[in-house]
Amino acid sequence: MKKSGVIISALAALLTVASASAASSQSSYHLRGEPPSGSKIPSVAATAPLPFDTSYVALSASQKALVKSAYESLGLNDTPPFPRHGLKQVYQPVIEANHKIGATGDLVLIADVNQFGFVETITVQASPAQALSLKAEEVLRSARFDPASCDGQPCRMTFPVKISFQ
Q1: Number of structural domains, the chain?
Q2: Which residues does UniProt assign to the signal peptide (predicted)?
Q3: 3-state secondary structure 57-104
Q4: Would 28 be classed as within a structural domain?
Q5: In which domain, by residue range, is 138 found?
Q6: pLDDT tens readout for residues 107-139
Q7: Is residue 1 one of the residues assigned to a domain?
């Protein structure tokens, strides 16, 4: 069985994740997958500079700055939309679905998150397999987001997702 690599970018190249460990000067966080056959030790499905199970509010100041850097014109008091229970709720189901589908290539989606934290529309910009983009859309629509904040008020903003399956 061929081991496939996964690289995930969220928020326009903010988050890079690989199935192999990433050598980096910053902290790394891991998303665990299923153990390989014959093992009880979970594999590392993804590695990133942000924790997968943390809400935006609970991120450190430097992690929030990393998230905000992916957006061009956020003011000092503005925040982007972010999955309420962390990035894991979006990425893990998509990665697991692709283990069954076996697609390679880029999956790029833009989710329009309204002022209440619900995804209203999703634009699929690229997909290596229709089944994978449908699963990603399903996951994004079921995920609850903390809405973006513009000048202290909840507002509509996009949440871009890019996943490269190798």
Answers
A1: 1
A2: 1-22
A3: CCCCHHHHHHHHCCCCCCCCCCECCEECCCCHHHHHHHHHHHHHHCCC
A4: yes
A5: 6-165
A6: 999 999 999 999 999 999 999 999 999 999 999
A7: no
